[in-house]
Specification:
The protein is α+β, with helices and mostly antiparallel strands. It has 10 helices and 11 strands. Strands 2-3-10-5-8-11 form a 6-stranded antiparallel sheet. Keywords: DNA-binding, Transcription, Transcription regulation.
């Protein structure tokens, strides 16, 4: 994604950023800086800012021909559509996260979910709002960014959920999104499960699974969870742990080799996920 960004000083560089982590269609960053001011102008990304400040911060914002002055506290959210310049001045130390989602990705999600091309898709600018679902999505993305290792299929899932939520709640012309019920038919489910089993040693993206059935990532995730009772990323993690269990029976295999074969980035990454799902470490499991 490309964006034109103008910030006044080095203090505005992010504490954390997904910019170079391989995340697709979305950028998540965490900031903390003292009193100041700044301007942003993202040509092809919508920007969502979520306050993490422990104390309210006085803000003056100008965007879309409107000026807004108020205290921003923890959980307050602002939305700036793509191509809209924004000026902000704040008094006091500020801490917040910013999510930038590609406008083309949002349009693609709308097209796939609607099965038709929407008219020009625009988001409505928002200055200070509370939205528990949007906040929850943001915090889950931030938590994933803070992990030593991230799950691409989990980030893909959250990105699609975020896109659908923005379309439903903040599009200028809210599209009517179809929701299919009943879960995946058995033959489609088997096709997906076989694909996952055959590619556990490779990176598997949500887009790969949805493409198998020629459906949108949002609808695929919805129907998969209806049928299996867990999300695709959870099922994929479970199957990788099951594969690791099988390989741990081969006592000549090192745990780091098993971790890498099952697409965990390190021994500690496998151990953490293994313990969460089984209640024991790979070493303890091998000894049973």
């Amino acid at each position: 994604m490309t964006a034109a960004t103008h910030l006044p000083e080095a203090d505005c560089l992010p504490l954390l950023s997904s910019q170079n982590q391989g995340w697709e269609n979305i950028v998540v960053e965490q900031f903390q800086h003292p009193s100041g001011e700044g301007r942003t102008h993202y040509r092809d990304e919508h920007a969502i800012c979520l306050s993490l400040a422990p104390r309210p911060v006085q803000f003056l914002q100008i965007k879309g021909g409107k000026t807004h002055a108020s205290l921003y506290g923890k959980s307050d959210i602002s939305i700036t559509p793509a191509e809209m310049p924004c000026f902000a001045r704040w008094e006091g130390e500020d801490c917040y996260m910013q999510i930038r989602i590609a406008s083309q990705f949002l349009e693609n999600v709308a097209k796939e979910a609607l099965k038709k091309s929407p008219n020009r898709l625009e988001l409505v600018p928002e200055f200070r709002l509370r939205d528990r679902q949007l906040e929850a999505i943001g915090l889950m993305l931030l938590a994933e960014l803070q992990q030593e290792n991230f799950s691409s299929i989990y980030v893909d899932s959250l990105s699609n959920i975020l896109a659908i939520h923005l379309l439903r709640q903040y599009a200028s012309n809210k599209p009517q999104l179809q929701i299919y019920e009943g879960g995946l038919p058995q033959h489609q489910l088997l096709q997906v499960l076989e694909y996952i089993d055959e590619h556990l040693h490779q990176e598997i993206k949500l887009a790969d699974l949805a493409a198998l059935l020629d459906m949108s990532q949002f609808h695929f995730s919805h129907l998969f969870k209806q049928r299996v009772n867990i999300a695709p990323y959870q099922y994929l993690l479970q199957q990788r742990i099951e594969r690791a269990k099988q390989l741990l029976k081969q006592r000549d295999r090192s745990i780091i080799d098993i971790a890498l074969e099952c697409r965990f980035n390190s021994h500690s990454h496998l151990s953490k996920q293994f313990r969460q799902l089984t209640g024991m470490t790979p070493t303890a499991y091998r000894a049973t």
